[in-house]
Design goal:
With 461 residues, this protein is an alpha+beta fold. It contains twelve helices and 19 strands. The protein has an eight-stranded antiparallel beta sheet with strand order 12-13-14-15-16-17-18-19, with no helix packed on it. A seven-stranded antiparallel beta sheet has the order 2-1-11-10-9-8-7, sandwiched between helices. Helix 1 runs antiparallel to helix 11, helix 2 runs parallel beside helix 5 and helix 2 packs across helix 6. The protein is globular, with a radius of gyration of 26 Å.
């Protein structure tokens, strides 16, 4: 999973080092460590520290806070893929008696379950988990603050419920299931619920003076699935590669893609900021680039994992301070630096290994009314349909094996595309969710809804 730093050009490596040096200096972080992944391999690691001598390497643990939620989400998706639950199931079906059972599993994953953002006082991040031994202690007397499914409201107790769901279905503690089903298969040997040397200490840096205060390290107890984990730049780089490509030992690429897809209604401010949430992953659009990942924080620590999926570049940034550098911005910048300095080289074009003549004859221009579209063949007997010019509805379609295709994205997601043939076998038109696509605009030989004016096309004389 590692490769020599020579995989990146010297100028790129210097630009990465400069970016984290500025972040550590201006953010006044006691230490900051980062890694960059390209093509599924760690190609760069850098660190800056306020302590003379050896800077933290990629094997030093930091607390990663809410990046833990992404690990918990992976466990839940595994249960779904095994048929043990459905994401549309209400929590009550599998974990009765919580008082929040009307929230769906998908809603909890996407923070649309209507739950409060935090557990009742005292603040759970700076107090022992033993103060909240039961789910009722985490949820309080009024778990739901909003109608279920109506809005995105980030909820730490929601992920406590998901961790309890994993324990209920698996019949084992959350951390044992995580180690057995995710950490060990992916080789994340330096990711653990409790710190293991070497690890960084957590610090609060005074906002108006260059002095520090040690932060307490608490075991979060029931809240562990929301933020307990410690990890390293090296381990999180491997986790980023998994979230890019999937790993059938843990979760398929198809399920990982599902995690990366928007699943929550965005608040107005989120729309303005280009932010939304998937299933255990944050999604951000900025600078012409779609980024997915997660940030994390606990007293004494900040963490960020950012993936530019289309660029095939990911970044991990960890710091041991309660507040300071904006690691989500740093992570996005590290991705941008590599993507712009060394753009991804596309795989060579290759022709399809085989093609069905009845599908090939569908390729080319089609018209929905007067709107011009083009149908192209894709791999695995799929097709795509998109406007010839400008924006508009577009989608890829997966073959069903019976001469029809099912939409994969956008307006046509889940919709059926089929070629309608005349009695002599020639193609009359395409039918897509009741829309009729013809070879000519308003083709009089096709069953255009509403019919075609018999006077035909004409000018104004």
């Amino acid at each position: 999973m590692t490769s020599p730093e020579e995989d990146l050009l010297p100028a790129t490596r210097r630009a990465l080092l400069h970016r984290i040096a500025v972040a550590q200096s201006e953010g006044r972080a006691p230490s900051l460590t980062a890694a960059v992944v390209r093509g599924g391999r760690t190609v760069w690691h850098g660190a800056r520290t306020s302590v003379d001598g050896h800077a933290p390497d990629a094997d030093v643990q930091y607390r990663i806070g809410s990046i833990t939620k992404t690990f918990t989400a992976v466990l839940v998706l595994r249960l779904r893929d095994e048929g043990l639950l459905d994401l549309g199931d209400p929590l009550e079906k599998h974990l009765p008696g919580t008082g929040a059972g009307e929230a769906t599993i998908a809603g909890l994953l996407a923070h649309t379950g209507g739950l409060a953002a935090e557990s009742p006082a005292p603040w759970w991040e700076r107090t022992p988990g033993s103060l909240r031994p039961e789910l009722a202690d985490v949820l309080g007397e009024q778990p739901l603050l909003h109608p279920v499914g109506r809005r995105h409201h980030y909820s730490n107790p929601g992920y406590t419920l998901l961790g309890a769901l994993v324990e209920e279905v698996r019949g084992a503690p959350w951390d044992d299931v995580l180690r057995r089903e995710v950490l060990e298969p992916l080789g994340l040997t330096r990711t653990s619920p409790r710190p293991r040397a070497p690890h960084a200490g957590g610090w609060a840096v005074h906002p108006w003076a260059d002095v520090m205060l040690a932060e307490p390290v608490e075991d979060l107890g029931r809240m562990a699935p929301a933020g307990q984990l410690w990890s390293t730049a090296g381990d999180l780089a491997r986790f980023a590669a998994f979230l890019t490509y999937g790993d059938d030992r843990v979760l398929s690429l198809e399920s990982v893609r599902e995690m990366r897809a928007p699943a929550a209604p965005a608040e107005a401010a989120d729309v303005a900021d280009g932010m939304t949430y998937g299933l255990g992953l944050q999604i951000m659009h900025g600078g012409g680039r779609m980024l997915v990942g997660h940030s994390g924080s606990l007293p004494g620590f900040l963490a960020n994992l950012t993936i530019g999926v289309e660029d095939d570049v990911a970044a991990v940034v960890l710091a041991n301070c309660t507040s300071g550098p904006r690691l989500s911005v740093v992570g996005a910048d590290l991705v941008r630096i590599v993507a712009e300095a060394e753009p991804r080289i596309p795989a060579p074009w290759r022709p399809l290994p085989q093609v069905d003549a009845s599908v090939l004859e569908l390729a080319g221009p089609w018209y929905w009314g007067t709107n011009a579209f083009v149908l192209r063949l894709t791999a695995d007997e799929g097709v795509s349909l998109e406007p010839l010019a400008g924006g508009g509805r577009r989608s890829r379609f997966r073959a069903n094996g019976d001469g029809t295709w099912r939409g994969l994205e956008g307006y046509y997601a889940g919709e059926l595309l089929r070629a309608v043939r005349r009695p002599d076998g020639t193609v009359s038109h395409l039918d897509l969710g009741s829309f009729v696509f013809t070879r000519q605009p308003y083709d009089e030989d096709a069953p255009v809804p509403g019919g075609v004016d018999p006077e035909g096309w004409r000018g104004i004389g």
